[in-house]
Design brief:
Blueprint (H helix, E strand, L loop, with lengths): L2 H27 L5 E5 L3 E5 L11 E4 L20 E7 L8 E11 L7 H6 L2 E5 L26 E5 L9 E6 L7 H10 L4 E7 L13 E4 L10 E7 L1
Antiparallel strand pairs: 1-11, 2-4, 3-10, 4-9, 5-8, 5-11, 6-7, 6-9
Length: about 240
């Protein structure tokens, strides 16, 4: 091989290797695309003494008490307030990624009896629910053990929305904005073999004789997929 040819080959080889090294360096420095996991509840119940079927009802509901607020002290034999519970079985988190955000997305039934000013003042609350439950075996007496705390430090986040006429509409709750530490509870949940996390829905919105629609009325998991509650988990590096 002629010296000038050998030199040209050497330079071409060096250029190729430099390009490969540069490409690998860029690939290592480029952050991976965010990943969003969408999770539906495996169980959900509306907790109220006079509900016909708390487990299989197509709606979840929440309202508060004018005397006790969003969460009362007596969880059985009461009519003053109501709450709902959701249970999620979490998928494994993506490798080498961390939870960056979490939202609970609920679809509210159309034509509510409250107005946006009421909802803004009394938003829907997502609270930590440390006690697990099974929808299949739920009875009203279970509420004595499975209920949220009235401690504001257990609130993951709140949400409200302006209803568009008489149509159903979404309410999104950012679970990383309240005093409750959803991120820490998520880490504990995914470290457990069952990977289960539960959330309670509460509100200080009070009907006070204004009508049965003056409550939060949300589609439960006992509906078609597009109506069901969704837990959206956002991951990044």
């Amino acid at each position: 091989m002629q010296p000038e040819v050998r030199q040209a080959v050497k330079e071409a080889y060096n250029g190729l290797m430099l390009s490969l090294i540069l490409a690998l360096t860029i690939a290592q420095q480029t952050p991976a695309s965010p990943i969003v996991q969408s999770v539906e509840p495996t169980d959900d119940v509306w907790v109220y003494q006079y509900a016909q079927d708390q487990a299989a009802d197509p709606f979840l509901r929440a309202w508060g008490s004018s005397e006790e607020g969003a969460v009362g002290k007596n969880f059985t034999d009461h009519m003053g307030f109501s709450y709902s519970c959701l249970k999620f079985e979490l998928p494994k988190p993506p490798e080498k990624m961390h939870l960056k955000g979490a939202k609970l997305v609920l679809l509210h039934a159309g034509d509510p009896g409250w107005d946006p000013a009421d909802a803004k003042k009394h938003p829907l609350e997502a609270r930590a629910l440390p006690v697990r439950f099974e929808e299949e075996s739920w009875t009203y007496e279970t509420a004595a053990k499975v209920h949220p705390s009235d401690d504001p430090n257990t609130i993951y986040g709140t949400g409200y929305a302006a209803p568009p006429d008489d149509k159903s509409f979404p309410i999104e709750i950012d679970l990383m904005t309240g005093k409750g530490d959803f991120g820490s509870d998520y880490k504990k949940a995914v470290a457990d073999p069952d990977r289960v996390i539960c959330i309670a829905l509460t509100t200080s919105l009070v009907p006070d004789g204004a009508g049965e629609n003056t409550i939060y009325k949300l589609f439960s998991r006992n509906n078609s997929p597009e109506l069901r509650p969704k837990l959206l988990l956002n991951f990044g590096e």
